[in-house]
């Protein structure tokens, strides 16, 4: 699983985090780490995945929105 902010290798149980996130707020980092960790439980972005996110990081939708917005800002720099 690869996104612009993080990568999860499910088979090796390893996650990689984009260093650009260090410039963001801690909640953004927490969101991406949680997202990648949930991939260890659920491979796909399906309903079950969202349930895990709701459990571990209830505000994830808000942070995701913010991150997407910041990514647009980042790319237009
Ligand atoms: Zn993902």
Automatic annotation (TrEMBL):
InterPro entries: UTP_pyrophosphatase-like, YgjP-like_metallopeptidase. It comes from the Bacteria. Pfam families: YgjP-like. Residues 1-69 form the YgjP-like metallopeptidase domain. PANTHER family: UNCHARACTERIZED PROTEIN YGJP (PTHR30399), UTP PYROPHOSPHATASE (PTHR30399:SF1). This is YgjP-like metallopeptidase domain-containing protein.
């Amino acid at each position: 699983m690869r996104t612009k902010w993080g990568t999860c290798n499910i088979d090796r149980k390893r996650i990689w985090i984009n260093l650009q996130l260090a410039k963001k707020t801690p909640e953004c980092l927490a969101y991406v780490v949680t997202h990648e960790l949930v991939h260890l439980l659920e491979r796909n972005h399906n309903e079950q995945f969202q349930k895990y996110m709701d459990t571990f990081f209830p505000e994830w939708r808000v942070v995701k929105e913010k991150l997407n917005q910041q990514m647009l800002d980042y790319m237009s720099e």
